[in-house]
Amino acid sequence: MTTRETTAYMPLHDLDLKLSLGDRFMVMAYGAIQWPWLLRSLDGGRKKDKADLLAYLGLPLDSLPNLGSWKADTHFLWHIVSTIEEMRPAQVVELGCGASTFVAARALQLFGGGKIVSFDQHAAFVETTQDWVHDNDMDADIRHAPLGAPPSGWPGHWYQLSDVPKEIDLLIVDGPPWAIHPHVRGAAASLFQLIRPGGKVLMDDAARPGERVVAWRWRKEHKNMEFKLDNQGAKGTLVGYKNTT
After folding, report:
1. In a structure prediction context, what are the per-residue pLDDT tens digits for the chain, which is 245 residues long?
2. I need a labelling partner for 157 at 20 to 30 A (CA). Which of 30, 48, 61, 105 fits?
3. Minimal CA–CA distance to 101: which of 122, 79, 75, 130?
4. CA atoms of 145 and 157, how far apart (whole Å)
5. What's the CA gap between 140 and 34, in Å, rounded?
6. Using CA atoms, how far apart are residues 200 and 143, in angstroms rounded to an integer?
7. CA–CA gap between residue 66 and residue 43 (Å, rounded)
């Protein structure tokens, strides 16, 4: 998630979200071991890389001011752009809106004209991001999805999704934040059945210990998919591919 506002160290506060004792313990335990990754994530990428990305997309330099911390870094945004340019997806679904939505909307505009539906738990943030995209003459369907009970087998809280597209070409996983539970993004697997053969998954923050556990489970439980960690950039990207056979 990213806005045009100054980068804060922690993600946006989830009002009225009550964590169980078990979830709180997991957050504290992982926080004690993954602080090096959290410190590294403060770096949103080199200014030159961001300038190159915006030039490639034909966008003004000030259209994407602040990256890093709980926000997407430049390397992850490049992954989104290159994947869209290569795949020309008809339908992108995103979990956690912000800079990734902004960049994906522009890439879709340039490469194939597909659609993006993005879900986020913060209603005000959804509105701000929607305005940001529209102010730059781009299209994105950004929806408020409060956090609630997760799919069976996964911990924490999860997006209460509705009207999800029936077929997904590219799934972008950039939320919820790890402070809910270190394995919280694993529940994105509930959408894997909607990914068409040949479709892809991109998950941000994939170098962190919690996301590495998620990737391990995904590899174990979804034999029709392949997952590879790109450990470059500030936070790492997990790239998933759904086999065609």
Report:
1. 344 444 443 444 554 678 889 999 999 999 888 877 766 666 556 788 888 999 999 999 888 866 655 457 888 999 999 999 999 999 999 999 999 999 999 999 999 999 999 999 999 999 999 999 999 999 999 999 999 999 999 999 999 999 999 999 999 999 999 999 999 999 999 999 999 999 999 999 999 999 999 999 999 999 999 999 998 877 899 999 999 97
2. 105
3. 130
4. 11
5. 34
6. 22
7. 10
